[in-house]
Amino acid sequence: IKIWEVATGREPRLLRGHHGHVNALAFSPDGRFLASGGQDATVRLWDVAAGTSVRVMTGKNLAVLALAFSPDGKCLAAGQSDHVIRIWDVATGNRLADLLGHEDAVQGLAFSPDGRWLASAGEDRTARLWDLRAADPAANPLVRRGHDDQVNALAFSPDGHWLATGGEDTT
């Protein structure tokens, strides 16, 4: 992983640790940490200033395809090719939840600005909304269908009122 200084183009950090392709990156909201996910089925948390690995989190032995930090920076969500979203506690590295529901790989993740919702994009042609304030967030995700092929990307509007999704069907 190369971290570039935008204004100068200088590369002050080179982070090594993954054993295979790096598929996903996400900075924590305060910029202190960088999370990386790869083909080696690991999520690595890096201290950006020091350029060192803080911890390695593993789920199943399948690729990590998407990452997103919660707005408060306390949680990190990882979407994997085993159809599962794993939510980790950033401070401890403990797994807080497994969100099951997608029928194929999870390609994209986004937290709503208030942190209540986690949106996920899947190769199963769906976008799902998980209510993280519910007693059991995995119990009843809101499923949004409408794409004719896999959903690759999604984003919340700054006020959290809108969710945009994009997929391989050109919509």
Strand order of the largest sheet: 3-4-5-6
Give the strand content.
over 45%
User: Which structural category do the helix and sheet elements fall into?
Assistant: mainly beta
Order of helices and strands: EEEEEEEEEEEEEEEE
What characteristic shape results from the CA principal axes? globular
Helix content: under 10%
Number of separate helices: 0
Outline the low-pLDDT stretches. none
Q: Write down the Rg.
A: 16 Å
User: How far apart, in Å, are the first and last alpha carbons?
Assistant: 31 Å
- Main sheet properties: 4 strands, antiparallel
Q: What is the averaged pLDDT score?
A: 90
What's the helix and strand layout?
Layout: E1 2-3, E2 13-14, E3 22-27, E4 33-38, E5 42-47, E6 52-58, E7 64-69, E8 75-80, E9 85-89, E10 95-99, E11 106-111, E12 117-122, E13 127-131, E14 142-144, E15 151-156, E16 163-167
What does this structure look like?
This protein has 171 residues and is mainly β. The chain contains no helices and 16 strands. The strands form five sheets. The protein has a four-stranded antiparallel beta sheet with strand order 3-4-5-6, with no helix packed on it. A four-stranded antiparallel beta sheet has the order 7-8-9-10, with no helix packed on it. β3 and β4 form a beta hairpin. It is globular.
